[in-house]
Every structure is written in C-alpha cells, then in structure tokens.
Specification:
5 helices; globular; alpha/beta
Length: about 160
C-alpha cells in the first residue's frame, strides 16, 4: 500500500547578505502641519537621509514625510500609515523622529502608535526629547512629553 504524496511548496524569504544581517534598517518620519513649511520639511528629509547613511551599522530604509497634515489626526496621515505597514512587514527596524510633536499631538494616539510599532519589534528614537523606545523603562516620560505636545496643539 502506497501513501498519498502531497506536494508542498515552501517559500523562503531571501536572507540578507551576511554583511547586512547585523545592520538595522532605519527610516525617518517627518511631518509639518502646514504647506507653508516646505523649507522645514525639505531640511528634515535631507538631514535624516544624510544622518542615516552616515551610520555604517544602519541600512537606509527611506523617509516617510507629510506636509499640511495635523499631528492630531493619525488616521488621516497616509505616510504614517505606510510606515506602520512597512514596520509590520519587517522592512524597518528603527524609526527616527525629530520630536514627539512631529509624530503625534494626541497622547492616547501616540502611546497606541508606539505600542503598535514596538509590538512589531521596531524601536523609535525621538531626538528632541532624547527618548529611545528600545531602552525605555516605562512609558512615563513618553506620556509626559506627549501630553505637552498635545497641550501645545490645543493652545495654538
């Protein structure tokens, strides 16, 4: 008696070259709230591309940027949504952001975004606040700085 043979197809994702296996895939997220700040968004994009490429242990994985979109509206930021999808797909290991206020001006949304990205194994560095989610002991400082960014938005 001969058993049934089932043909299975196994798809293997190509491995990174050995030299790149230890390197982090790093992206940046940039945002300005008005279209009048074109000089600022251009400067942010240029800064981060050069900054990432200057680190030999990093692989440049792109810049996600938006102009003219409020930081209070997470769902209405297509580049942020694309970044989240790329993080989920394991295309990004680390995200650089100028400040928490560029990432989100809503405390609850900010915490949710950070938790989502960290659940994918992605770290976030907020440069102005000197916060790195990979080494944070708690969310206290993140919540504090995010609350300040939210309050600034309300006062504007």
């Amino acid at each position: 008696m001969q058993g049934n043979k089932v043909k299975t197809t196994i798809r293997v994702r190509p491995a990174l070259p050995a030299a790149e296996q230890e390197r982090l895939r790093v992206s940046a997220y940039c945002r300005v709230s008005t279209n009048d700040q074109e000089t600022s968004i251009t400067a942010q994009r240029q800064h981060y591309e050069g900054y990432i490429k200057a680190h030999p242990d990093w692989i440049f994985s792109g810049i996600y940027w938006e102009a003219g979109i409020s930081g209070t509206k997470t769902g209405e930021r297509p580049e942020l949504q694309r970044l989240i999808a790329d993080c989920k797909a394991r295309r990004v290991d680390l995200v650089l952001v100028k400040s928490l206020s560029r990432f989100s001006r809503d405390t609850a949304a900010c915490l949710e975004l950070v938790r989502t990205l960290t659940s994918f194994g992605v770290g976030i560095i907020f440069q102005k606040e000197n916060l790195d989610t990979r080494s944070m002991g708690s969310e206290f400082l993140l919540t504090l700085f995010s609350s300040i960014a939210e309050e600034e938005s309300r006062s504007i």
